[in-house]
Amino acid sequence: MTREQLAISRFRALMDAAVDAIILIDCRGLILDCNHAGERMFGYSIDQIRGRNISMLMPEPFHQEHDGYLKRYLETREARIIGIGREVVARRADGVNFPIDLAVGEVLEAGEVIGFAGFIRDLTAAHRMAAALRAREAELQESRDRLMHAGRLGTLGEMAAGIAHEMNQPLTAIANYARASARLLQQTPPALEMLADTLGKIATQAERAGEVIQGLRGFMRGQSLPKQTLDLSQLLRDFEPLLGIESRGENLQVEVKSPDTPAWVKGDPVQLQQVILNLVRNSVDAMAEGGGHLIAIRLERHGREWWRLEVEDQGPGLDPAIAQELFHPFVTSKPQGVGLGLSICNTIIEDHGGGLSCTMSQPGQTIFQVVLPALRSETLHG
Questions:
Q1: CA atoms within 13 A on the CB side of 224
Q2: Rounded Cα gap, residues 51 and 34, in angstroms
Q3: How far is residue 306's CA from residue 264's CA, in Å, rounded to a whole number?
């Protein structure tokens, strides 16, 4: 075997060992050679395509325009595919079009271009996989959309349950004040001055019910309501009559102890009243099962940076299993409870920069503690 024959043999072995198709053409675009991968890819044997124009492996419009591409490149050396490579469409022997990645290089002899070599990779499987991935992504997005919709429905359910829970408090106060008004009217003569005061309290509680709804809507949307500087001591004093009404039906006594000096904090008075009233109502419900007759509310300084509000009852205490998840949604020890009250209270206090916790000082004594950041004097006067 001559050296030239040996070189051709080695070149042929390299061609056929390649995974991708390799096709050699002359400067007129006529096919000179093709490896086995090219035969398998296009469905032609080399004998069927040798000497024919490479455009036979292309669909329109490339079929008619290919010779113009070669001529333009040889005249201008302006590369569009040759020397660059890109994704195009090819055509098999059965007439089926398929995507390929095509890279074309020059074949030189003595510095002159005598032909071109095309390196071709079939992208059919890659496109099929990409389409499957897009379909899978669409399915995942649809699943995410369904989960988000379910989440919105769940939030809507929590909001409805929360509104029902929180609205019960002002509505109960309105009912109690209305019964008191009826008794005042039955007196002889009617106690008109006290009646006017009681009707004013009914109006106040009706307004508070509207504020509760507005606050809960903002809460469920993740909005923080504007906060104002307020005195916790004064808030307790103003709120004490309603706390008494909450406990009167159970023959319980509510004792409130607060400092004589202002307890300045930054917060929303309606939301803080909701928290206090909810804690007192929980104590009333707990003590209805048996125990003492006193609910103690204490407001005191907690270090230099905090105010601490405690609500202590003498009920049966907490089930340790429930105590660990007391502030989670839908956790309750009440047969008719929905388990949202303490969860909402906890979120409100956290939104105020504080914390809500529960301890048992001794069997039968449950203490809920609310801590809120104290405003410094320079903040008040600044």
A1: 12
A2: 11
A3: 10
**Residue 373 main-chain phi, psi, to 5 deg:** -65, 135
Report DSSP letters for 221-289, one per residue. Answer: TTPPPP-EEEEHHHHHHHHHHHHHHHHHTTT-EEEEE--SS--EEEE-HHHHHHHHHHHHHHHHHHHTT
Look up residue 259 and give its amino acid: P
3-state secondary structure 292-357: CCEEEEEEEEECCCEEEEEEEECCCCCCHHHHCCCCCCCCCCCCCCCCCHHHHHHHHHHHCCCEEE
pLDDT one-digit tens code per residue, 299-339: 999 988 999 999 998 877 776 666 666 776 555 555 444 45
Residue 108: strand pairing partners = 113
- Among residues 81, 82, 121, 118, the alpha carbon closest in space to that of 101 is found at 121
Highest mean pLDDT among 40-44, 275-279, 315-319: 40-44
Closest CA to 346 of 326, 366, 322: 326
Question: Structure pTM?
Answer: 0.45
CA dist 228 to 222, 266, 267, Å?
Answer: 19, 5, 5
Pull the structure tokens for residue 363. 């069997």
324 Cα distance to chain centroid: 26
